[in-house]
Amino acid sequence: MLNQKNLVPKTRRVGNQGVAILLCSVAAGSLAARAQQPAPVARVDLEQAIQLAIKHNHALKAAENAIQQSEAQETTAAIRPNPVFT
Asked: For the chain, which terminus, N or C, has the lower number of CB atoms within 10 Å?
């Protein structure tokens, strides 16, 4: 904004909120730069690779859950019903 009396630009005073926003944006930018650095590569042998594949296999986990569900249904079916008095 120009001051019309002497045509000198007016300076705006930045409050504490402006400084806080500036600091937060700088901090967020530096965190984003750190996040983009590649992670160090870990070496695994064949046995560890197989264990990791089994541990993170969603299809295998789903099959295990289906087996557990079937066993729970068998247990529920074997329970005697509550007596009914007529």
From this structure: C
